[in-house]
Amino acid sequence: MRRTTESENKKLHKVKKKMEAKERRRKRPSYFGAMIDPKGFHPSQIKFYLILLPVLVFTILPILFIVSHAFKPIEELYAYPPKFFASRISFDNFRALVNATSQTDIPFGRYLFNSIIVSILVIIISLLLSSLAAFAFTYLNFKGKKFLYAANQLAIMFIAIAVAVPRFMMITYLGIANTYLAHIIPLIAMPVGVFLLKQFMEQIPKELNEAAIIDGATKWQVYWHVTLPMVKPALATVAILAFQIVWNNTETSALYIVDEALKTLPYYFGTLTLATNSIAAQGIQAASSLIIFLPNLILFIILQKQVMNTMAHSGIK
User: Fold this and answer.
1) Is the model's pTM score more than 0.85?
2) 216-224 own/partner pairs: CB under 8 Å, 24+ apart
3) Which of 31, 216, 283, 289 could form a disulfide with 93 if both were Cys (CB 3.0 to 4.6 A apart)?
4) Is 37 left (phi over 0), alpha (psi -120 to 50) or beta?
């Protein structure tokens, strides 16, 4: 029997590697022949690019307009027909914003501090409550489970304005009006977060949890050490959604807060434009819109890969 040479062994090794890579690509989840989150380009993706590129152009235009609008000189803000891009970059709008904030009784930093503190607390509590609820709906059996999950799904259909009156009555009844709790409690319940996390948890093999329980882990330990590390993409998505809700919120400061020192940055920017003459107000509004928008964009860019993974896996059964 002839012994294989070193060159033949290398060829066999390369062939084996190619077959293993082909098998991995075959087993990766896909829609219509295109892999979810592929490592490289695949010809099957061309049809998706042809559809998504025009959509991308129309999606990115508002973002470009917000940035361009903030740096337009004051005369171009009122130009007709309006210009999409500024002919020259000007920082006059930001200077007007700084001058307007320096003339108020409450310093600008106070409003920024309120927004940051409220946003952090809402994100943390929302992640904790949503993940605990999703864990219970996915792995635990208890009376009324189907009814409660159906109620959660039904709650997704309601927009904030539809529950404004009941929310006002509840906040008044609890006695938390004109406090930080009025900013936090109404926003910590996220039905869509529970839905996304539950869909993601259902993809985790139950054998992992069962093995942890056999090793002596409690349900809390299974939740904290086994489940949460495996649903990080979904947690990142819920964090983005929670941040967008609380960071852009102006209703709480307008309806439930009387003390000016407890109000948040978006509401403060809105009052600045109302208290300023109409010509300068346009520039202040353009600059403040960019300042409010940028944290949302930066956070999404940082976590966009996690968001894509969540949306891809949340519908797989």
Assistant:
1) no
2) 219/139, 219/140, 222/139, 223/131, 223/132, 223/135
3) 283
4) left
Residues 6+ apart with CB under 8 A from 252: 182, 183, 186, 187, 264
Q: Supply φ then ψ for residue 315, to 5 degrees.
A: -105, 0
Higher pLDDT, 7 or 27: 7
pLDDT at 214: 87
Domain edge (last residue) among 90, 113, 148: 90
Identify which of 170, 182, 168, 163 has the alpha carbon closest to the alpha carbon of residue 246.
182
Q: Which of 45, 65, 90 lies at the terminal end of a domain, its last residue? A: 90
Q: Is 30 helix (H, G, I), strand (E, B) or coil?
A: strand
- Token duo for residue 151: 């109620």
Element (H, E) at 165: helix 164-174
Q: How many domains does the chain have?
A: 2
31 forms beta bridges with 34
* Whether the Cβ atoms of residue 178 and residue 258 lie closer than 8 Å to each other: yes
- How close are the terminal C-alpha atoms of the chain, in Å? 51
**Could you tell me the CA-to-CA distances from 36 to 25, 50, 190, 219, 277 in Å, in that order?**
10, 17, 27, 32, 52
User: Largest Cα–Cα distance of the chain, in whole Å?
Assistant: 96
Q: Is residue 102 part of a domain?
A: yes
Does 168 reside within a domain?
yes
* Tokens at 253, concatenated: 């400061």
Q: For 64-88, how does the pLDDT look when each residue is reduced to its tens digit (9 = 90+)?
A: 888 888 888 888 887 778 788 888 8
Does residue 29 have a cis bond before it (omega within 30 degrees)?
no
